[in-house]
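Entry: ribose-phosphate diphosphokinase
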Amino acid sequence: MAEQLSYLFCTRTSRVLAENIAQYYGQQLGKINFQEFSDGEFEPVLDESVRGGRVFLIGSTFPPADNLLELLLMIDAAKRASAKSITVVLPYFGLARQDRKDQPRAPIGAKLVANLLTAAGATRIMTMDLHADQIQGFFEIPVDHLYASTIFVDYIKSLQLDNLTIASPDMGGAKRAKNYAGHLGAEVVIAYKERKKANVVEEMFLIGDVEGKNVILIDDMIDTAGTLCKAADILIEKGAKTVRAMATHGVLSGKAYENIENSKIMEVIVTDSIPVKNNLSTKIKVLSCAPLFADVMKMVHEHRSISSKFVI
């Protein structure tokens, strides 16, 4: 039996990351012709045969919604081109914060996106640090949920910080912080916040002692950085020696760059799951998730276990 071929394609806004993934994977990205109409409609056409092969479509679905639509059209194109399997590689899964109905008449956007990806023809999903782990259950197809901890833990160790403490900026991230602390032999503190509306923190309290400690705030994403900066202020007020922040997805909307630059945070580390304008702040450092995704994609293609990539 002939070996199944693999093909890599990407959305336009995720091209830089996809090129890095392709380099580590050891294969060039496939060509896509984009036809654009004057009203804004676009049509991605795969420029090579993928019949009977395994197709990897790489694209984070951050706003605008065109990024998601582009990916859906590419999935449909691969399906209609008779690809045997279609693995959608979503370094950042957009709308993941809409994982439940938390108020009357609200949508569950994450479930809708899961339905759209499956209906378009995806046969496997590969993503990293979902905002809520239960989103995996929204799919009826295999989901490979990777963790940026495989990237961040090594970086934290390289800092060689004494009196290290891992902090969660909210109660929801307590489990994540505890897992990091377990791998690093560190203590855990939690910032308890109360919100009145999205992106606005009303009050915040600290649970735990940080006197004289080097603290690293761990989160899955940084949006406006309001919560992060407020947490850093409280940590410094309570006697923390230094405060750093790590988040998988650098959404960085609104005044995020300004907030970070003017904050008491020494350094903010994110991955390149979303393109980051790190020239807007001297405090932002980007670690690439390309090697992680390339390794797992190769393992999946070769039908090998990927459990070694699940550090946390």
